[in-house]
Protein 1
Amino acid sequence: MNIDGVSTGIVLDHIQAGKSMQIYELLELDKLSCSVAVVQNARSTKYGKKDIIKIDALIDLDLDVLGYVDPNITVDIIKDSKLIEKKHVALPETLTNVIKCKNPRCITSVEHGIDQKFRLTDKEKKIYRCCYCDAEFKV
Amino acid sequence: MENRNLISITDLSAGEIDEMIKLADDIIADPEAYSEACRRKKLATLFFEPSTRTRLSFEAAMLDLGGNVLGFSSADSSSVSKGESVSDTIRVIGNYVDIIAMRHPKEGAPTVAAARSIVPIINAGDGGHFHPTQTLTDLLTISRKIGRLDNITIGLCGDLQFGRTVHSLIEAMLRYENVKFVLISPEELRVPSYIIDKIRDAGTEYKEVTKMEDVMGELDVLYMTRVQKERFFNEADYVRLKDTYILDAEKMQLAKDDMIVMHPLPRVNEIAVEVDSDPRACYFDQTLYGKYIRMALILTLLGIGRNGKKA
Ligand SMILES: [Zn+2]
């Protein structure tokens, strides 16, 4: 794999330095069969330092996960060495199975087989609330 | 409203609450017209934790509508003790009944149930989270006793930090015009800031005080709650504060002649027994209204009107 360029695949750019491994885990990139390169502490003109993830295939990505971890990430879709689409992510309105409710009295602490769902209740303060028990989760 | 669930009081619009209060008024005026309304219908009361008063109120409501009831009164007597999930329990019991009232110690359990259920779910209390039929009971009581839900000064007294009945009553009352809240509590047990934010956002007048005596004369409604000993950090604070929040005949002398006293019950010692004979004491009537509003709720969620006709 050529980490400077991806001929066909996805580049997650402008990741806040240090957050690439969290994304790697949340998106379960270890389960992919294609090659994945994680670049940490790359130089960025805009932010000083940044992380980059390059995925060597066009896979379906959960943009909500990216928006939750860092809303400044850009997603470059590359086909035949050409940038065909640049996507921007945002803090998602809902999160499903990304974070876990920490309230020990919440039904999600005992009931198996249900999704961990959160809704964004305060955009400025980045506060999510559990869809079951309304417990607060600050990003 | 037919086939909907009631998980939180905010699931209902102010208009829907008004309709339900009107229906309860009609049931009280002419109970005969509703005595067979739910014939051949079944209510399941699924109480994963015991609450005898709430369960009996639901069951009495359904029986007075001519319907039948079945269910369990604690997790020990149900399949839950064998480890069955809420989702599975609801999927099974939904096949037997027309509507379910459930109480569960875990917060959010009724939301899980509603996602799986083919029949309406009523939250009869989920831990310290919501108890919407208590709030409906409170609203019907105020409406019956005061004759309106707007232009009211309501005093809420006691543990305002953890009292879920207080929080949802505030949220429900915020929708009415010219309501004023007087929040009476120890410094340590004040209304949480997110509720205060909601009061402010609604542009509703409120004040926070620590002494009941200072505000008694202003109130149309005094809503008492218990100050639990375990909420205090030390014994001294508890002893210092507890009497401040006990309503007795002496404090009642400071109140208006037409003020009403409410309490979600059970009480411990926060209302002296001598107050019970005061005509302004409404807490036992409140439990009766609880049955009537549950009748109205069951009818509404089943889409049934007077004489069992489709609403
Ligand atoms: Zn939760």
Note: Chain B touches chain A through 16 residues (CB under 8 Å).
Protein 2
Amino acid sequence: MTAASGVRTHCSYCALQCGMSLAPSGPGIPGPGGRAALPVAVAPRDFPTNRGGLCQKGWTSATVLRAGDRLTTPLVRGDDGELAPSSWDEALDLVAARVAAIQAEDGAGGVAVFGGGGLTNEKAYALGKFARTVLRTPFIDYNGRFCMASAAAAGNRAFGVDRGMPFPVTDLDGAQAIVLLGSNVAETMPPFVQHLAGARAAGGLVVVDPRRSATARLTDDGPDGEAGLHVQPVPGTDLVVLLALLHVVLAEGLADREYLDARTSGVDDVARSVAAWWPERAETVCGVPAAELRRVARLLADASPSRGGRGAYLLTGRGVEQSTQGTATVTAAINLALALGLVGREGSGYGCLTGQGNGQGGREHGQKSDQLPGYRKIDDPAARAHVAGVWGVDPDSLPGPGLPAVALLRSLATPGGPRALLVHGSNVLVSAPDADRVRERLEALDLLVVCDVVPSETALLADVVLPVTQWAEESGTMTNLEGRVIRRRKATEAPGEARSELWILAELARRLAPAGLPADAFPTDPAVVFDELALASAGGPADYSGLSHARLDADEDAAGPGLYWPCPATPPELSDPARGIRRAEPDNSHPGTPRMFLDAFATPDGRARMVAVDHAGPSDDVRADAPLYLVTGRVLQHYQSGAQTHRVPELEALVPESYVELHPLLGTRVGVPDGAAARLTTARGTAVATARWTDAVRPDTVFMPFHWSGAGSVNRLTTDAVDPVSSMPEFKVCAVSVEPFAPADLSDPARGSHRAGSDASLDQEVPA
Amino acid sequence: MTTSPLRVPHRIVIVGFGMVGVRLADELARRDTGGALDVTVLGAEPYEPYNRVLLSDVVAGRTDVAAIAMPLPDDARTTVRREVAAVAVDRVARVVLADDGTRHPYDHLVLATGSAARVPAIPGLDDAATGPASGVRMPAGVHALRTLDDAREIVAATVNTPRAVVVGGGVLGVEAAHGLASRGLDVTLVHPGPAPMERQLAPEAGAVLTHGLEATGVTVRTGARPSEVLVVGGRAVGVRLDGDVREPGEVLGAGLVVLACGTVPETALARAAGLPVERGVVVGPDLACPTDPRVYAVGDCAQPPEGSRGLVAEGWDQARRLAEHLVSLAAAPLPAAPPEQRVPRREHLRLPGDGGPSMAVRLGTLLSSRAPSARGVDARGTDVVKVKAGDLSVVSMGVAGAGAGTAPGQRAVRLADPAAGRFVEAVVADGVLVGATCVGDARVAADLVAAYTRRTPAPVDPAFLLLTPVMPSAAPATSPEQMPDDATVCRCNGVTKHDIAECVADGAATADDVAEKTRATTGCGSCREAVCGLVDWLDRSRRSDDTSAVEVAAPR
Ligand SMILES: Cc1cc2nc3c(=O)[nH]c(=O)nc-3n(C[C@H](O)[C@H](O)[C@H](O)COP(=O)(O)OP(=O)(O)OC[C@H]3O[C@@H](n4cnc5c(N)ncnc54)[C@H](O)[C@@H]3O)c2cc1C
Ligand code: SF4
């Protein structure tokens, strides 16, 4: 079902960035169910990542273009406390004046910026530049901190660079074994499952997940019987599983010694550290039988090239990364992959499954508190000089590192913390941990400005809401989970007065006009922004300098192999920042880098660094008054905080409300029948959700998806403890107690506020 | 941590460079970021630190000897003297004397001397027999299993002899017997009790274990004990049995005899120094000797109030607690607050000043948050015995063994399935699992350990603990007929059997037609076969329902 006609672009949601084409729908053709006509019709397109498949989110993505409550004019909170439509000038003047006033009082750091992993590369770049050159605030971070930071930190430490998958996703097709750690691709990116077919046929799919997720179920129905195995550890102990696997690999002599000698450093320390994790001990901590751990280790070793296998991959996802030991866990996965000689070899490897649409690109162009474009470090003088040169500003005018997301949110409107926040492409109120505290901080701000396409929960708290364009209405680039730079193309006009963030930033820059910033510093043509981004990235780890919109288009027109960064334009020595950027003729012959590390790693000595790590357990572990584990995750029909997908009736009809999965044995123990309302309580707060009995969860664990706000918001329960290296919060595990939720509790204000959601869940029980 | 640069470092001497001594040195180095400590470790063994627990795996050939090396303590902060044994402690002068003539003054002394294998007093073994193996000269072919040398020698011996006798059916004996059998030796396990591992296992469970061992090729002789080791030319050639024998004076021929007759805490140094010693070195809940607060004991040599089971998890937990204590003593001249309150809330599992994740190996966080209370230390979680015997799964924890679960308030349920080689017992009190035994079911064993160590709520009916808890599920639909109407066929697009049936009723005749209408099969594509089958079946049944339809074009 590949559409020949229509605008070639990619899905609006996740990092698989499924290819789709958007054909203009004839005017007057009503949308499904007699709803407003949609401007475009979605058809899947044959692209290597999705091979013509789309999930339900992708199929219905056009509905969000005409969401009933789509924002079409700026909104400003009036004296009556209500948000009311305003003109762009009015809204932008207001923002600029308030920002200037706050900065006059508090200095540059009085204003903070929060970005998103869904923004195009161009927008992410412009946002980082805006924060550093117009606001000159150190305080910018983004929601990618919630999903990518641990894998990024571990990848940078081990390989010297972080690209989620350092190989094309289609390489997975030929693998004999694939281990998925904490990733539920069957729900989060269904078309990806096609790439697991080879491993499943070989009986080599291993899914490590405390829940028998849809992905875990893929292990038991292979074409020839068993497709692999599901390893079901106690939540928060994935690291132990990995340490034990490496133990077995070393103890049984299954490691690739030649590779370890030639391409890695640090193996001795790592080997000693895993000597303490023999499988029987690991079993007592992670709840996975020792024999099963040995089986997985052997299965992986058999598939490894050094032992004559067809190739093996280890892939991590949020399940293991969103943890106070997320960086350590990814490091352990990398150590295991290195010991087996998988990384930097065609047909094998380690990868992280990026989640958000531009979760990869979003972390490369300067939205992170400690980074400048090209994945450069903001505290590196050479990087500062290079980027300042491209921006035409004094390097000393650039701020230093700010605070990572959780710390930034915690600091808002606290003494010395920012008093104003600009939010772009993020619904922090629902997606950040310890949501009740986030609400407190946001409410305490002097100025909250939110750019969004719909009135998200965060937007509804704002003083100024700015309507922006979304995927089918804009042009730009995204970098998908493979590090492939792809084009997003415009297929239709945005409704009303919605504008691109590029325009908004340009307008704010014009109004704030800081001294020393070139007047044309904020172009609004995405192709022009990209060219500047490419220049700024030159010589950095994520080098885009050999790319342009035109080159990307040409490659696609010619059915080329795709372009993956690093794709430098000039020999690196010419872009040496110390000598200024002296690009000769633009040289766009570099083919890009589909597979990284084939010859060397991006570390100073070219070797991958193995780092010894150890298990400490979750920050909020079970105890007498919270004796169960709470794990969180996604469902197929919804995306992130649900700001988009809750507005798609087809999706909403299938999963209309928050729920909590619990094992029947636990349900009977705590007195919560299937379908009844359950109250969950943690050290942070309380949530109410409808119970779903299932043996897919361990009896010591409950699962809640995180797509809802209000009473059913699981992030009111999660902890904001963070990984010490990556600052990524521990979304995936905390201690909880579960009890029946009695309707009487509704009228008991002391029980906390659970308005909307709990009403809804009670309505469910009343026979219609 | 604020330490005055002028302060003289606090001298800590650790005697014993075994599993717990090494761990203690490591825990101290990690916590002492300010250099307030001066740590010296004396170790009688010549080796780099190694994982003693894995010696059974070395014997079994399951692990490479090179893979049992443990992390070295930070040499910048720790002085390690290998192959140096402490010979005396002068507690008045606060000095340890070593066998190489060196003297090691201390502010605090930690004994981590471990234990030694017990050698039974039987003819054939040295006259000085009863007592620890160290220093006892034994005939060639007879070995205890305690040190790396022991393990190496046993492995070497397996090359020269086809038959082995393992004396003693405790955990170690079972592991050794199973390991030697897996090397292809003809192994007899001689155990005086009625069934192996009676300290941990009820008789019924022990019987199941016996069968399990026999299935792996081990001959189990219960009720029998060795009365003599037969030695010819300085070499063991067999063992004479006593007790339940097949004939009077029965002899088991064997060129390799492994003694696994229990361990004796290594207390000589403490005893000579006048410290209270019972079975082990007596210490209080704070691990200090009651008569000398400057001397502590940890690991197998210690006898804390809650008792010692000789498991490494206990010793590591003690090492962590003691390290916290010693660092706080060195750091704070004033009486220190209890260590667990000094640690910041959100980082209570990580060490201050340590940029990376903690290196301290812990048995889950439960242990790290556990502090000695008035009643002593709660040992829950450190007392899980898990036998390392390949696919033969044996685990016991907490309240277990003969007569377990008979105390008031406890409820014991058991599943005895000897024919299938399975025995499971769970003891529940106050709604949580307080003990369990599981032989022959690895999955259930792992679940029991998780429930036990974490105190998660036990099922209302504890009998559910005896099996892997699964929901009764309908048999998988083998034909489209049996599939419920609301069953999801295409997950990616949320398409049910009902939706597809409607489509077919509307005239769809192929999977592509259905895809066009419902998007089924257009996600990951795994449901394509199911949709094709369903469409075929629906189409066929539609036609057979309506016999006249054959000639009629499907309604569009
Ligand atoms: C084969 C085998 C398998 C085991 N399996 C398990 C298992 O599966 N699970 C489990 O929990 N436990 C197991 N154990 C027990 C575990 O090994 C011990 O609990 C652990 O080693 C105790 O550590 P320790 O430091 O107290 O003593 P040790 O490891 O015995 O170390 C003591 C060290 O002190 C030295 N020393 C003694 N006296 C002096 C002196 N005067 N001067 C200097 N040095 C001295 C000794 O030479 C030795 O190196 C096993 C033991 C063995 C032998
Ligand atoms: S949400 Fe992801 S998997 Fe689904 S269609 Fe869009 S890009 Fe593909």
Note: Chain B touches chain A through 77 residues (CB under 8 Å).
